[in-house]
Structures are given as structure tokens and as C-alpha cells.
Amino acid sequence: MAEKRNIFLVGPMGAGKSTIGRQLAQQLGMEFIDSDNEIEERAGADISWIFDLEGEEGFRKREERIINELTQKQGIVLSTGGGAVLSKDNRNYLSARGIVIYLETTVDKQFERTQRDKKRPLLQDVEDPRQVLEDLAKIRNPLYQEIADITLPTDEQSAKVMANQIIDLIDKTQI
Predict the structure, then answer these.
(1) Among 1-5, 92-96, 110-114, whose mean pLDDT is lowest?
(2) Quick one: pLDDT at residue 142?
(3) What DSSP designation does 122 have?
(4) Where does substrate bind (predicted)?
(5) Which of 25, 80, 123, 172 can bridge 84 by disulfide, Cβ–Cβ 3.0-4.6 Å?
(6) Binding site for ATP: which residues?
(7) Which of 3-12, 20-29, 37-46, 88-97 has the least mean pLDDT?
(8) How distant, in Å, are the alpha carbons of 65, 68, 107, 152 from that of 58?
(9) Residues 6+ apart with CB under 8 A from 59
């Protein structure tokens, strides 16, 4: 990969975007940025607090501004929040400004990976978190697919193996 194109990771919560993204950036010698962490740093508060105060709509506006800004950088690996694809603008920014990798996972695996995580506002204080994940998947999975240059299932592989697969696929497909 002679020229370092931006690599954007999309997919549902618990797909491994941040973990795989860090590994990928390290192997490629690129900067890793997690859009959710960036939002938290700039707001001086965690995402749950932003959701409580501004609602999902307020959070999504912040997310759109950040993704617009971050996707204009060069040579980054960006992990996006699971709902970033809900914004048509975000989908346009991502697909136009880099290689989009959809990290696909099953609802069962998401549930397993997120059930003890208290930093998932959409899963807090709900009666049936698995149903929430299924409902989100119905809406979001087609949007991830729409903008993906490469789709990879993440359920059975380590982050290092996934990062190597992504590098190989990018090199082979010359996206």
C-alpha cells in the first residue's frame, strides 16, 4: 500500500471496530482515531451523558461534524460509532474519502460482547437488549453494506488476523 489511503471501519457496536482499528493502524504505521472517543474528548463528557442531555439527535449532530472533519484528514484509520451510517452526509463523507470496511457480526456475538458494557446508551435501561440489537441491525446493516468497499465477518477471528486480512484485501483489490 504505497500511498496511505484513509481506512474507515463501520459496523454495529461490538463488531470490533476499535480493537481491529488500533491493530490495523499499528501495522500500517497510520494514525488511529475512534470517532466516539473524539466526541467524548471534545465534549468533556462521555457519550451516555451527551445522550442524556441532548438526546440521540444532539449526539448525531456532534457525530456528523466530527466525521466530516476527521474524514478530511489523510492517512488515518477511523473507527466510527455504530449509528454513524444513519446520516446520509456521513455515508457520503465515508464513501468518498476513503476505503470503507464493514465489520460484520451476528446479534448473538454483539450481545455477548456488549452485555456487561455500561457505555452503550442504546442498551441501557432497556428490557430486552438483544431485541434492541436486532432492531438496530435491521435498520443499519443495509446502510453499512451500501457504503462498504469490503465486508468482513469478525465473529471468529482475532483483531490481529482481521487487520492482516484487511491489509491483504486492500492490497489485492487496489481500491
Answers:
(1) 1-5
(2) 96
(3) G
(4) 36, 60, 82, 140
(5) 80
(6) 14-19, 120, 157
(7) 3-12
(8) 11, 16, 26, 31
(9) 39, 47, 50, 51
Average pLDDT over residues 124-132: 76
Annotated binding site for Mg(2+): 18
Give me the pLDDT at residue 2, please.
37
Which positions make up the binding site?
14-19, 36, 60, 82, 120, 140, 157
Say which DSSP state 126 is in.
-
Location of C-alpha cell 442498551 = 123
Among candidates 7, 171, 21, which has minimal Cα distance to 75?
A: 7
The DSSP code sequence of 67-85 is HHHHTTSSSEEEEPPTTGG
Residues 169/7/54/126 CA torsion (nearest 10 deg):
20
Cell of 105: 457480526
Domains in the chain, CATH or no CATH each: 6-169 (3.40.50.300)
